[in-house]
Each structure stands twice: as structure tokens, then as C-alpha cells.
Amino acid sequence: MVYLDNAATSWPKPPEVLAAMERCLREVGANPGRAGHKMAIAANRLVDETRKELASLFNIGNPDRIVFGLNATEALNLALKGLLGPGDHVVTSSMEHNSVTRPLNTLRGAGVKVTKVACDHTGAIRVADVAAAVRRNTRAIVLTHASNVTGTVMPVAEIGRLARDRDLVFIVDAAQTAGVLDIDVTNMHIHLLAFPGHKGLYGPPGTGGLYVAEGVELNPLKEGGTGSHSDLPGQPEILPERYESGTLNTAGLAGLGEGVKFICREGIEKIRRHEQELTRQFLEGVKSIKDIRVYGPCDASRQAPVVSFAVGERPAGDIGAILDQNYNIACRAGLHCAPDAHRTLGTFEQKLVRFSFSRFNQPGEVEYALYCLREIVEKNIPAPAGGGCGC
Amino acid sequence: MVYLDNAATSWPKPPEVLAAMERCLREVGANPGRAGHKMAIAANRLVDETRKELASLFNIGNPDRIVFGLNATEALNLALKGLLGPGDHVVTSSMEHNSVTRPLNTLRGAGVKVTKVACDHTGAIRVADVAAAVRRNTRAIVLTHASNVTGTVMPVAEIGRLARDRDLVFIVDAAQTAGVLDIDVTNMHIHLLAFPGHKGLYGPPGTGGLYVAEGVELNPLKEGGTGSHSDLPGQPEILPERYESGTLNTAGLAGLGEGVKFICREGIEKIRRHEQELTRQFLEGVKSIKDIRVYGPCDASRQAPVVSFAVGERPAGDIGAILDQNYNIACRAGLHCAPDAHRTLGTFEQKLVRFSFSRFNQPGEVEYALYCLREIVEKNIPAPAGGGCGC
């Protein structure tokens, strides 16, 4: 299997990730922060170690401002619903994932006003358009760091400055960029950073989290046992407990810590160069295949290692199914849980095929994928029986 | 280490659980329900397999009515906040965990009325008292299946009948009983069953879920990518997607499936007998140690394999620290995230030491624990420097 679906979840994981998870389950199975015994303290230490690794990666001063949850979606729900209330206005883009658009849709029903700034046909946003959308009652800007459809990198640093200057809370969805691009919450003026553990950070699924800047107060999404301050009727004020209720994914977080260490050891710049090179190779190669239209910046330096394309007028699901069943290539065809983005690109009906690369992909795999696409186009290979899933 | 903290998380796990997690991460790392390719389909199959195992265990007709999340706390938050709104009244007990009392505390702020039925000094509730608490606007009863402090088993079947007769939604917190006691949602008339994956079901931490009966409509706690019906502005109507947003803990759920299979293979009755025997052994042995007071039913057949006790007037945290540091016994001392329960028992100030047993504990460990407790009392062993953590 040639795995080009790393934007959904990265695979494979570095072997250290699996080893750490197994060690955690075998040796320190206990519940962190729930008791004073040696195993519980060891479990706590593992989780806190991961917090520290992430804090260092994202330039977060206090690791306890990172709260863990099931995934980036949970983090975004906590950020948006925890922050915004009736009468608030929020500015977002037309390239967001459903993990932003759907919570905003619910909040709209609760009296929050939402402005979606239109992006261009490459998925790019203009900072001036964001600035123009800010109103007197604007509370926050929420933006993806890079589109999960086109990979388009958003001008997060500039918009961070705008947010700072206008005294707005800046929420960034780093689903496609955590571990992939440099993220510096301090210098980028990011107040709330939602990240998945299982994509560019090479941790296992079931991990993700939210950085909450000092001074930003959120209503918790969940209340429950926090292992400390158990006598209080509500959640404790202190972080991370305030936003972490119930048992964490201890083993998964131990694995995530190893994923982050792997990135730091390899060097994020080196990984970025490798992924950028694969993206460039694909973008270059695909140009010569007639009938394939790539959407997005078509410039490896301006996108995450994510490329989406259409083949003639053929439904994307058919191409995805052919790649899977005839060529053993795992990719993702469909709307990518981002219908707004597809509307922006004009691909809502046909949908798109997405390739996404990781540190572990090799140039030979890109070459093979190009070869397959050329054959599909030239021989007009039909979709396998049962057709494709375009979800 | 003698591990007697299974009510926090069970340890060790059956080896098949770890093997399934590793196999999932190594071979089917992809994101379930997010693409049509073979690896994604394999991931989906693993998760659905676990749904089926759980449905069979709990006598749930349609496995898709089980939704997965990070832990039982998330499931309880979804159940309570998803169901209850301003003007609703809910009946609960005075023995609940913070995973019930804290969401209810928040809901109270939003106009939900809450009646806490007082339990007796053994943690037991009278069905007549629950019936008497029901009002015209009562919407639901929420009850723990067994106290996480005293192990007291609640009369869930009787209260289920009451709920059915009075047309109330019946919410059960199975944190201490899933995999430990028989749970039959159909015959017990349970509408919403919250369960952790990592305690009596022997799965890894980071897993848990909620069974949602046909006809019960909840507002989702989280919205986001569901991998299907991506074009909708809000969550799809169908389950499990409606309540499952973002990437699931695929590997963890694969492990959980093996945990449930382990239980079914061993036989839940056989596991129950073993755990009941350990509980009985401890209750019997502790009687002859002067100055130790056990709280709860003191009858292994009427409690989950959880026993809490006080040693004279000594703070529970001190005893927990001595057990850990002098004797290498992992237990849990403190309020157990259940301050209401401790108020009911009259142990809010002193707190309690809790022992909890699993399938993997052996009579020799109980004997050792009794020996240590006797020594602590007879020699009046002092707390180690630094003292105990009573969380």
C-alpha cells in the first residue's frame, strides 16, 4: 500500500511511538493525577513530559496551558463554544473544515454572528479582507493554518498582528500544520491553538489538544473528575484540570510525546524540506498529465504537503476507488469534511482527489502515483464495481 | 507493586488488548470512515467490531446506538447536557461522582432543577425515595450503577421500571460496573448508558462511550468532521456520526474490543465470582483489625469489587502514602472525585482509603494487604516524609 492519506492521519508512526505506548500500558497503566501512588505519579509524569515537549515545539511558556482531549475537533469545540456567546461576532474564512464551520453553525443558532471571509480560487485569504470584516462586537478570528483540501498556508502571523492590534482572540486550527510548519504562539499572537496528535505530530489517533493563552477564559466543554480540588462543586480554576475531565488517553499521550521528540530530533525544517520536495515533485509531474487540474497554490513553498486535483469531469470518488483497488494507493476523495472549501474552489459537485505526504513517503511513491494517474487518464480506466466513496 | 486501584483504571490489561492496539497502529493506521481505501475500511471494521462486542455485552439491539468518546465523563456530559434544558427537573443521588454532579451543577446555572436523593450511611438508595422525588416536570433520573467509593450497587432494574412507568429518561453511569456486573439496557430500561473502556472492560485509557436508546434525541456536545454527510451545515441525523466528531481513538477501540472479548471468553459471571471472593476475603479479614472502619454494604454480593475504609482518625492520604512507599501497594486515598458520596458517609474531612480489585488480583495480594494494614495499625507506622496525596 502506498499511503498518501497523511492529512487524515499519518502512517506509519515512528517505532518509538508504539514502544512508548506499549511501555505505558505494560508498566505504568495507572491513572495520572488520580492518586499518589508510584504508578499514578509515573503516568502523570509521562503526560506532563508530552505537555513540555509540545510547549517547547510551539513556544508556549507554561506547559500547563496545554489541555488534552480526544482530537483537534474537541479542542476547536472547546475554543469556540467556550469563548463565544450571544451578541459576539466572529470572523472566519471560506476554507474551514467542518470542525470549525459546524460548531459556528450551532453557535449562530445561539446568537453568535459569523462572517466568513471569501478566499480566492487557490484557497488564499487577503489580510485586508479579514481586517475589513472586523466589527465593533467582533470577539475573535478563527482560521485554519493551512487548508486540509488545497494545503494553502494562511498568513497566520499577519492575522495574528491584526488580532493583537484590534484586541481580538485569535484561534488557529493547526490540524494540517502542527509538526509540519513552524508554529510560535507567542510571536504569531495565537491565543487558542487546536492541534491533532495523530497527523504531523506522529502520535496515535485519540490524541489532540488546545493551547489556551494566559488571560483567556473559556467555559469548559465537559465537567467531571479532575483528580484535584475534588471538593469543589464546579471545575477548578487551574489549568490543565479546568478543561480536562475524566481519564486521559495516557498511553496515547505517551506515544504523542515520542512523536514530538522524533520531530525535534529530525528537525522540523528537515522534515518540511522533505515533504516540500515530494509536493514539488508531484506538482511538477502532474502538469504533463492532460485533463488533471490541481487546485490550490500549486507552489510547494506556499502549501502544506497536501495536493487536491480533479481528473477531467470524472467524479473524484471513482478516481479514489481506482487508485485504491487497481493500484493500492490510499488517498482521500470527496469533500474532505470541508464543504465550504469545495464551494470556494468550485468543486462541490465533482469533489476532489487528495494526496497528502509525510516524512515517511519517498520520491519513488510519488513517481508511482504519477505513473498510475497517467495510466488512468490515458487508458480511461473505469471505476471498479461498487464505485468510490466520496465522503 | 500490588495494584489495588482498578476502580481508577484496571491494570494489567489482557495481552490481547496490547497486541490489537499495536496491530492496528502498525497495519491499519488509517482514519476510519474518512476514506474509501482499504486501510480506512479496515480501521472502520475494527471500530465497528468493538461496537458489536459491546452491543452484545449490554444487550443493545443496534450497535450504531453506541457512540465513542474519550471517557465515561465525556459520555455523561453528552447525556446530561444533550438532554436537559431550562425548566427540566432531574433526579439523582447523593452518591454520584463529579462526572455527574459537576455537569449537573453547570446545568443548574442554566435553569435545570436538580434533586439529590439522600442515600444511607452504606451508600444505598431507596427506590421509594426516588419515586417520591419525581415531579411533574421531571425529565430524567441519573444514577451511578455502583458507587466508586463504597461499591454499593444501586437497584438499577427497579429504578429502570420506575423510569419506564413515569416516562422518564433513565441515565446510568456504569463507570464501576461495565464488564463487572450484568448490564442489560433493554431489560433494565436504561436509555443512556455511559461506560469507560479502561476499567472493568479492560481496554486502554482514552476509550469510553454512551449508549443512546432509539427515540432519545440529544444535542451533540461537539460538532465537526463526521466523514459522512460532509455537505450538511450541521451534524448528520444518523448515529454514531451524530455524536462522534473528529478522529476516534482507533487503536484504543481496537484494544477495547479485545478487552470485551476477553470478558466474554472468561465469562462475566466467573470474573464476578473471582472479584467477589477477593472482596469477601478482604471484608472478612479486615474485621479483626482494630481501628479500621469499612464504609459501604460490607457484603461482597451487594457491592462492586471496591472497598473503602478509614484507619482510626488518621488522614486517608497518610495511609495511602504508607501503603505505597513502605509496602508497594497502589490504592487510592482521598475524596475519589465524589465529595457528595463522602458527605453522605460522613468522611468528607478524614477521607477514605480505597482498595479495588480486578480479574487479575490474587488472594495472596489481599492477604498481603491485610498483613500490611495490621502492621500499620499495630505499629502505628508514621506517614513518610512528604505525606500523602488525598485527591
Automatic annotation (TrEMBL), chains A, B:
One Gene Ontology biological process: cysteine metabolic process
Catalytic activity: (sulfur carrier)-H + L-cysteine = (sulfur carrier)-SH + L-alanine
Pfam families according to UniProt: Aminotran_5
Molecular function terms, GO-annotated: cysteine desulfurase activity; pyridoxal phosphate binding
CDD domains for the chain: SufS_like
Cofactor(s) it depends on: pyridoxal 5'-phosphate
Assigned EC number: 2.8.1.7
Aminotransferase class V domain boundaries: 2-367
Record key words, sorted: Pyridoxal phosphate, Transferase
SUPFAM superfamilies xref list: PLP-dependent transferases (SSF53383)
Family: Belongs to the class-V pyridoxal-phosphate-dependent aminotransferase family. Csd subfamily.
Name listed for the protein in its UniProt record: cysteine desulfurase
